[in-house]
Amino acid sequence: MEARLVRCAQGRGLVRDVWETVERMSIDRYIGSRLKLLRLAVDVNPEKVAAYMSVSLERYSEYELGIRDIPAGNLFDLCCFFDVPVTHFFDGYEQFDRNQGEFDEHTA
């Protein structure tokens, strides 16, 4: 937060850049949390999902943690694997606590 305030004070253009970065990290965390909840709900281990997607377990774990954004092709693979529409990963985003990066299972 402190670094964000310093960067924002440097100029108008940086305010937008910093906000976009924070927003993107937020959506990546949200999609990752939805992915993990779905995987746990169907009782599948992460190794099986990673193998289906042809990615390393480390990369898959980064998707669930929201550290790495999921490319569209991989998101499509996940939809096929779990038999869910792509909207499944975005549903309830309004209730996502963007500051804490935590998903409230009771409101989605």
Describe the structure concisely:
This protein has helices spanning 2-9, 12-41, 46-53, 57-65, 72-82. It has 108 residues and is mainly α.
Task: Report what the structure shows.
By secondary structure, this protein is mostly helical. The protein has helices at 2-9, 12-41, 46-53, 57-65, 72-82. It has a single domain (2-95), classed as 434 Repressor (Amino-terminal Domain) (Orthogonal Bundle), CATH 1.10.260.40. It is built from 5 helices and no strands. It starts with a helix and ends in a 26-residue tail after the last helix.
Topology at a glance:
Blueprint: H1 2-9, H2 12-41, H3 46-53, H4 57-65, H5 72-82
Helix pairs in contact: 1-2, 2-4, 3-4
Rg computed from alpha carbons, rounded to a whole number of angstroms: 16 Å
CATH topology group: 434 Repressor (Amino-terminal Domain)
**What count of domains describes the coordinates?**
1
Please identify the top-level CATH class: Mainly Alpha
* DSSP summary: helix tally: 5
- Could you tell me the strand content as a percent range? under 5%
Unreliable parts: 1-11, 14-20
What sort of overall outline do the alpha carbons produce when their principal axes are compared?
globular
Q: Any key phrases for this structure?
A:
single chain, mainly alpha, 434 Repressor (Amino-terminal Domain), disordered N terminus
